[in-house]
Amino acid sequence: MSEVSPAILDTVQRPAAPSAFSNALVFGWRAVLKFRHVPEQLFDLVMTPLMFTLLFTFVFGGALAGSTGDYLQFFLPGILVQTVVFNSVYSGMGLSTDLSKGLFERFRSLPIWSLAPFAGLMVGDVLRHLIAGLIILGVGLVLGYRPEAGLAGVVFSFLLLFAIGFGVGWIFLVLGLLIRTPMTVMTIGFTFIFPLVFASNIMVRPQTMPGWLEAFVVRNPVSHMTTALRGLMAGSATAAEVLLALLAPAVLTVLLAPVVLWLYRRN
Amino acid sequence: MNDTALARRPATKGETAPLAISARGLVKHFGDVRALDGIDLDVPRGTIFAILGPNGAGKTTLIRLLATLLSPDAGSATVMGHDLVAEPQAVRAAIALTGQFASLDEDLTGRENLLMLARLWGFRGRAARQRADALLAAFDLSDAGRKQVSAYSGGMRRRLDIAASLIVTPGILFLDEPTTGLDPKARQGVWRMIRQLARAGVTVLLTTQYLEEADQLAARIAVIDHGRKIAEGTSRELKAQIGSGFLHVAPADQAHLDKAAAILEARLGNPVQRSAEGAQLSVVAASAQVANEALSALLAAGIDLADFSMGSPSLDEVFFALTGQGLDEEEREQRP
């Protein structure tokens, strides 16, 4: 390696300390850069939900709802919920990667707002949910899905999706802080998430299920989220439905956000 | 550096030159493991100070603690005049840490990594870009600046990692095993860079497993083991304590090992160590003259030698000299 040029050894003073908000923006910028450098992650984000959409609409749709068109109208809001819940894993995996690579050691040794890195994770989450949601909605529109409440319904639906992603994300952040292998974060997280997503009203109306399962499904938070999203897209949502959908994300945030902070700050 | 005795330097009061680091009685537990067991440390400003010890001795724990990543269970320290526990943000503003493994974002380019850190330090817009580009140029990474770090070689990562610690000139640069895993050429490069930084007034605290590295770079060396400091001094002082030259002897016939060991011990008056494989004997020889006499004695006794050499003591031998016991591999691996 060549000599370090003497110029670099001129003492460089620290500029005025940036604000906490400015720190957070830098981490948000980092999240955007990751999308630019690793575009193949978009494939991971939307491939499974697109396969589900096509499979359920065209293979099972007729049998489940009488026609593929009717089924798509029923199914599409649900697959958006499923997509956001599953894609919440990426923040936890990213956190686990950063911790295992020692990147957080550097962040923590800097004189910055200690929670700024989490702001970056949230920016990444919102981008992921927005991009995946728009692609799936776009495909749905091409296949004949029509949100009766129009643009306003779509906007409110996406806000609800962000809230759901934010709430569920805490589960994976806790796992990401505890587990140093990103793949294990995903496997363990999905062990909890899978039954909740599949034993819900996303794909099939619970009335057709055996009584014991129906009893679970109608109480499943994922079912509440799906019901609210269908209502928002159709323009028929009640305040009670939306609040019920927000209950689980709110509870997860209240319970797990302090755990995440504690795990992050503990040595 | 001064060549005064190994005696502990006086505490901050009465010290003429201000200390970069002054630590007293630092203790850190991990469960039942006492990773640091009462470490005192005084590092003068503008010098290179080496922490020498085997894996698991507590080197990394000590650096992480001084860089505010861990809080001590007992003891106190000031870093660049700021209390470690009471003023962690002031300490962070005065230090930079380059950990044992490159702490970089693999998905981003080298330039973006530096830009991110420059912005976190408070550089804006063009100033941040200028700082990132200047560091890339200085560390011979301009051509690779727009490549993702995942495509970098080990030496390039290490350079970028150190560059990332110099966004703002730190008062103290902590380097945790800066050359572990590097080839000899890259190692020389890192050594040159560390010397230049010290000449520019940066205090460098580095950890190493290699006596040679500490010897080459550091004005002062602290040897630690099991979380305790077992010796401290200049390289010359430590060598005087350990014995500067080691005579390594390998008898052609292994059946002669015991006899050869007895002769060496009698001639040189120092305990003889056997290598892990048992085929080589090592013993402190005060001078080439006495080493030569000992070799003659072996030959006169009819012991043929496959190989012999004079050299610096290895870390094993340092520990043997300081503690009277070697570091067997098993023990080393068991430690966390």
From TrEMBL, chain A:
Its main location: membrane. The keyword Heme does not apply. It holds the Pfam family ABC2_membrane. It is found in: Cell inner membrane; Membrane. Residues 40-267 form the ABC transmembrane type-2 domain. Keywords: Cell membrane, Membrane, Transmembrane, Transmembrane helix, Transport. The chain crosses the membrane at residues 45-65, 71-91, 112-145, 151-178, 185-204, 242-264. It is a multi-pass membrane protein. InterPro entries: ABC2_TM, ABC2_TM_bact-type, ABC_2_transport, Nod_factor_ABC_transporter. Belongs to the ABC-2 integral membrane protein family. This is Transport permease protein. It comes from Chelativorans intermedius.
UniProtKB/TrEMBL annotation, chain B:
Coiled coil: none annotated. It is a peripheral membrane protein. Residues 21-251 form the ABC transporter domain. It is found in: Cell membrane. SMART domains: AAA (SM00382). Pfam families: ABC_tran, DrrA1-3_C. Keywords: ATP-binding, Cell membrane, Membrane, Nucleotide-binding, Translocase, Transport. One of its GO terms (molecular function) is ATP binding. The keyword Transcription does not apply. PANTHER family: ABC TRANSPORTER ATP-BINDING PROTEIN, DOXORUBICIN RESISTANCE ATP-BINDING PROTEIN DRRA. Belongs to the ABC transporter superfamily. Drug exporter-1 (DrugE1) (TC 3.A.1.105) family. NCBIfam families: drrA. This is ATP-binding cassette domain-containing protein.
